[in-house]
Amino acid sequence: MLTAMSRPTRFEHFRWLGDKRSLRVHDLDNSTDDCEIDELMASEKFASFGPDSLLEAKNRCYKPCPHCVRSDDAAA
Ligand SMILES: [Zn+2]
Asked: How far is CA 65 from CA 1, 2, 39, 60, in A?
């Protein structure tokens, strides 16, 4: 079984992770080193969404991360 990157333990049940400082939302299924998820978790300035969807993140004025959110998802 292949996993690109392990998810932060506290977010293993979430896909979308918001950064409250930049109002950027990351796709944990596709996150890259450039996302600096570890740094975000350490800062504790992260947000989860309910429902856990990109649309909900957008409704809260979060912008899709250019590194990990696929363009077809971002256009949805
Ligand atoms: Zn990202």
From this structure: 26, 23, 15, 14
- Global pTM reads 0.83
CA 1 to ligand 1 center in whole angstroms? 23
Higher pLDDT, 52 or 4: 52
Domain ranges (residues) in the chain:
13-74
Question: How many CB atoms within 10 Å of residue 37?
Answer: 23
pLDDT digits (tens, 9 = 90+) for 14-33: 999 999 999 999 999 999 99
Report how far ligand 1's centroid is from the alpha carbon of 7 (Å). 13
